[in-house]
Amino acid sequence: MVQFLSLKTQIHHSWPNVTQAVWQKYPNPFASHVLSSDVIDRNVNPITGVMTTTRLFLKKGVMPKWGRSLFNVRDAFIMEQSTVDPRDCTMVTVTRNLSHTKIMVVEETQTYTTTTPQTASAASAAAQTLLAPITQLRTDVRIISNTGWAPIKSRIEGFGLTRFKDNTIRSSQGLLHVLENLTHAQRSETA
Amino acid sequence: MTSISPECNELKKQYDDCFNKWYANKFLQGDTSPACEQIFTLYRACIWKAIKEKNLDQLISDARKEKPFNAANDTSSNT
Question: Do residue A34 and residue B1 have CB atoms under 8 angstroms apart?
Fold first, then answer.
């Protein structure tokens, strides 16, 4: 069985700032479970100008108490692959666990875009896009349990979903915290 | 935020500082020509050494062959 979850949110910050905050997200007070973060590969396509990045995270304790007695699961490595297209103002991050995939795979895709510009001219549309302090965030999640035992399988997927909802809230709180610091620093620079 | 390997922390910090400035002041402004290459080469070598020591390289290369990561592999050049 596979569970899907999709949600759309608005972040009241400009797209350039939001994408900067994604790079600077850790550490933050809402992410004490994130133990390490590294860029392991990064390149910019010279023709399209699109930047592709692979990051590796180590996150603490992913299992509930009842699961810990069944599976020997401690910390988990998470991989994220992302693209940033500065011309289209689109950032897409795809995240998946590398560890414990025999128990459960959680795949998360987050797409950060700007609101559709209303103006006709391309130049002013681009300018408006950069100035508009609203970023659209679409999150799509797929949770797949890989254990063969049905009662445990559905329990794991249910847990995955609940945990995911909690994490989503904490994750946006963390991003907003970083965004506040970022915009504060920008204001002091221009002042 | 610390690196996966304490040995790489200093290189990571230097690279992140360089990247964050480049990203805000060049990349987002439309100048996508690469920067921070020298420090990234050093940091990347340090990280990949740690990845191999922790036997994560096979997990990573397997993940890159599968969905959803296989779609993003294109022919772009290194930064």
Answer: yes
